[in-house]
Sequence to fold (1041 residues):
Amino acid sequence: MVTLGDLVAHLGCEPGTADADIELDAIAPLGRAGPRDLAFVSEVRYLDALKDCRAGCVILKAEWLDDCPVPCVCVADPYLAYARLSRLFETLPRPAAGMHPSAFIDPTATVPASASIGPGACVDAGAVLGENVVLGHGAYVGHGARLGKNSRLWPGAVLYHGVVLGDDCVVHANSIIGADGFGFARGADGWEKISQLGSVRIGNRVDIGAGVTIDRGALDDTVIADDVIIDDQVHIAHNCVIGRRTAIAGCVGMAGSTVVGEDCTFAGQVGVSGHLKICDNAHFTGQAKVARKIEEPGNYSSGTPLEPTRQWRKNAVRFSQLDALQRRLVKLEARLNALDEAAGDDD
Amino acid sequence: MVTLGDLVAHLGCEPGTADADIELDAIAPLGRAGPRDLAFVSEVRYLDALKDCRAGCVILKAEWLDDCPVPCVCVADPYLAYARLSRLFETLPRPAAGMHPSAFIDPTATVPASASIGPGACVDAGAVLGENVVLGHGAYVGHGARLGKNSRLWPGAVLYHGVVLGDDCVVHANSIIGADGFGFARGADGWEKISQLGSVRIGNRVDIGAGVTIDRGALDDTVIADDVIIDDQVHIAHNCVIGRRTAIAGCVGMAGSTVVGEDCTFAGQVGVSGHLKICDNAHFTGQAKVARKIEEPGNYSSGTPLEPTRQWRKNAVRFSQLDALQRRLVKLEARLNALDEAAGDDD
Amino acid sequence: MVTLGDLVAHLGCEPGTADADIELDAIAPLGRAGPRDLAFVSEVRYLDALKDCRAGCVILKAEWLDDCPVPCVCVADPYLAYARLSRLFETLPRPAAGMHPSAFIDPTATVPASASIGPGACVDAGAVLGENVVLGHGAYVGHGARLGKNSRLWPGAVLYHGVVLGDDCVVHANSIIGADGFGFARGADGWEKISQLGSVRIGNRVDIGAGVTIDRGALDDTVIADDVIIDDQVHIAHNCVIGRRTAIAGCVGMAGSTVVGEDCTFAGQVGVSGHLKICDNAHFTGQAKVARKIEEPGNYSSGTPLEPTRQWRKNAVRFSQLDALQRRLVKLEARLNALDEAAGDDD
Fold:
């Protein structure tokens, strides 16, 4: 339970039309919020729903105050306020400090008393955990890897040897940081493996989803800068460098040695070729095929629109004839020009 | 070993031309089935291979009876019969009930005696397992999560806190249900994490492949209805709702808050944008880019056909000129119309 | 530390202009290599950078010898030499032989004294490990599965029951070999699961990245031939057969029963339909949609080029009109032909 007074204090804003004693149990969507729920309006299109709102309190912009039938608090950015307040309603207790007896900690590892090490977790030789680190059940920290303070590995997450994770990071379950990059040379009889001698360096406040893979570098490190956020099942190949605050949505795949700027966004399933340079503030829509360098900030896309399959098939066949079609058009233009000229001559 | 009598009893059908005493050790493809193998014909195109079949028994449709040189059993749907019989030939023993001494079960968790808890598995505080639940090696069930009766987690599968899984479900190895949805608000200095306060609710008889991620909801739950089947490496983002019997093939990615109807099918690598509504009985071919709502049942596709790269490159360049090309065509049409009119005037 | 003499002996080549006593600590990229680093030049485009190189020794082709300001060793294929030498600079110690007390080994499993079994790893009944096998923390080997000599599972990797992995293989963290193929028959009430009675057979010297899924076969086995290399997050469905030395980059998805030849390459995120046959030496660019059989070696592609979103939208709309556009062009051609003929008649 949280009081409105707590919320207002947490946001550092004015109490608006609401009483500081209002008690709130949860955050709920506008449509189903009841008297003990907090709700939010972040966009104009939700104002209609606001009219019937029964929430205990609504966070909104001052300009929408008059549309609100229940107590409300005004802020400049309600969505950001929602993000900040959401933590107050988290019910999962933080794991207690201490080491589960079934965890295996190498005697040469550094584990502060404030750390919480779950059942079956493993910290290998020479690894160093910062204050308040949480390792979930079965998480693994390899030889000489380092986690900064307050960072958390959820169950089954794996940091290979030498990986460095900054402060206040989250790595969700079964994600793998520092597996070998995909480096092989072709020999006479097959593939000759290239030992991946670099590592992965991850900054502070980096949030990594579940089932992610970020490979270690071949010679230099793979680098993820501060404040990058990465969704589930993203793959980042060896020696990529991802700039600050860049956001990468689910199932994006990035090939090796690509350098991405700051404040970029990648929507789901975007594929990025290797050895590219992508400038700051470049944004890619879902499934975009990024196979060339990007030097201008802006939005980029590729692909074709969804169509009923029968219709799509016809158009897809024509795609394979596009170059021929274009040539036919050019020919037609030339013939028409000739006709026009001939007609001109006639006059 | 199974007798033909067992099979017929299991299917509840007539014995056909086969002797109930025939002993069968395995199911085999038509082409290599021997006298102790059971084989199936489910489509007309396999009738050719049937002629040379040496199987101990063949399951087929009554109309193909005369084409079969060996004993056979007739059923209305041989492929469905194959599915039902396949279980009789499963050789992997069900794990014995009981708790491996290396498993960690919180004293406040509920684990029936019929459950089988593998080495290193962990059941956290307040979690509740139904009868006959099987947890594989290293599987994790978070705080307050619930598994219905007969459900099984294979090794390394992770259910986060509060996740609810129904009866008779399967979750294959290293899949992750209930990690945080990808929710962040942009603040002045970077991304402000939105606590994901919802959970994941999964119905009965849901089959989930390996390496899948299904994220917990932001406020409401992410919901997977009864009888949904999900292949490996699928990603379902926060607050998606998937309708009954919908089938999702490998590597599909679905962005947040999308609502999918019943009996839909998604082929491999389909990408679905967020906040869409997809009606019942919509079907998507591989790699389809689903970026708009679907209101009509049917088959949908996107993309371009595979071509030799040299040829593809030419056509791909033309794609980028398509709008210009169309304008040139329109101009040509106008010029030709003008010519025609002029010609008409001449007459 | 490695001496140049060691390198030359390892490669079996001539010492070139370099002194056998030179000591080297690491391999480094040409641009930042210092006097105790080894560097490589594998392509002409790096010759410019070579001029300022300060490396202790450079490996290059004999024809570039005169461009090198520091000691160098000449080889026919510098990239291959780099691969071979990279192993000499690996600093991670091989895990010691022996079984961690927290590992669980079924009494009926075969584990040689030379094997290294990490904390919390599990080897189930009847499984057989070859000499020098390494199982990382929490890795799982199912009933009757077999690993050939020198093979290694990194933390959390899972081999299901009956899976066979050859000699000298690597499976990176949390990869899953042998989970159920996605096989279901449609019944009256929903999906009827088809027991996946086949397994997975993997040859020798196969390298498998992190977060990979390779499903067990329905009746026959899924097969990965010798010397195949597979990057992170690849999905290979049941009953695929992958030919020798084929290389599969990150996030590729392959549907069931597809047979791939030898020496093929799949770039990132390629999607392959089921039941296809792909010949030897076929190569696919990133995100290619492989939905038909391939009978000619060569390079194949699909998709459209990346464009600024505003421009892409216009072209994408035109794609949906391509068939209509083509028909308009044909009509124009006919009209122009008619005009030409009429003009001819006039003469």
The mean pLDDT of chain B is 95. Chain B touches chain C through 81 residues (CB under 8 Å).
